[in-house]
Design brief:
GO terms for molecular function: 3-deoxy-7-phosphoheptulonate synthase activity; aldehyde-lyase activity. By secondary structure, the protein is α/β, with parallel strands linked by helices. The chain is built from nine helices and ten strands. It has a single domain, classed as TIM Barrel. β4, α2 and β5 form a beta-alpha-beta unit. The protein binds phosphoenolpyruvate and manganese (II) ion (MN).
Length: about 260
């Protein structure tokens, strides 16, 4: 179902009315975690001013350590919905439990499946039974075949609105958090009709590298990027080291503009 042999033209996926894919480059931005109203609304207002059409923010966080901030849960979802209303920004947020699919439905516009859950097949089926978009991130050690089969699970369960996302993989290299696999983008665009996004924030884990890798994402044919941002990264409860401030973010948008125009 994911194959280009079956469908030659690009799939267009709607996230709360914002269409992604099909040759248009779309930016999704927001904090790693929803931490509170001031934090979330501050970032939402900033990205809105920068012309970004979609807001990201985690309410349920799949943290490596059980002692790290786990997210605000339902309270976070309520804040996301409030931000969506206030700034007219459809929302992308991660689901980590199949039982949360119905609960989340009214609060979000796109379910994110995180790298750690790419092969959580019950979770894939749960979002497959919904009619909202799904941003499916590549597992940190998943092959592209495995990623495409994970997407196949969602579509086979009844939901064709899948967006693939390359977010960096584990390699021998330790200079960066992950190794952003740009081969994957070109390969997936060739093999599949689904939109393909790049996450340069988790892909590099290094603030200064987000900008060049975002330009590379445009050049290699990605349909968009998902980027983490925080107005006060030092205070962030997760991934502050890779969060773009308002100034960083303005620079990113200015820097990718000519590449988007030329693509
Ligand atoms: C995230 O988007 O904050 C996240 C946890 O991403 P990943 O699943 O790619 O690590
Ligand atoms: Mn993060």
């Amino acid at each position: 179902l994911v194959s280009r042999e079956l469908q030659a033209h690009d799939s267009i996926v709607s996230i709360g009315g914002v269409k992604v894919g099909g040759g248009k480059f779309t930016v999704i931005a927001g904090p790693c975690s929803v931490e509170g109203q001031d934090q979330l609304f501050g970032v939402a207002e900033m990205i809105k001013e920068q012309g970004v059409p979609l807001l990201r923010g985690g309410a349920f966080k799949p943290r490596t350590s059980p002692y790290s901030f786990q997210g605000l849960g339902l309270e976070g979802l309520k804040l996301l919905k409030a931000a969506r209303e206030q700034y007219q920004l459809p929302v992308v947020s991660e689901i980590i439990d199949p039982n949360d699919a119905d609960l989340m439905y009214d609060y979000i516009d796109c379910y994110q499946i995180g790298a750690r859950n790419m092969q959580n097949f019950r979770l894939l089926e749960a979002v497959g039974k919904q009619d909202k978009a799904v941003l499916l991130k590549r597992g940190m050690s998943a092959t592209l075949e495995e990623l495409l089969l994970a997407a196949e699970y969602i579509i086979n369960a009844g939901n064709p609105n899948v967006i693939l996302c390359e977010r960096g993989i584990r390699t021998f290299e330790t200079a960066t958090r992950n190794t952003l696999d740009l081969n994957a983008v070109a390969y997936l665009k060739e093999k599949s009709h689904l939109p393909v996004f790049v996450d340069p924030s988790h892909g590099t884990g290094v603030k200064s590298l987000i900008n060049p890798l975002s330009r590379a994402a445009v050049a290699v044919g990605a349909d968009g990027i998902i980027v983490e941002s925080h107005l006060n990264p030092k205070e962030a409860l997760s991934d502050g080291h890779q969060a773009l401030t308002a100034d960083d973010f303005a620079r990113l948008m200015a820097d990718i503009k000519p590449f988007v125009a030329a693509a």
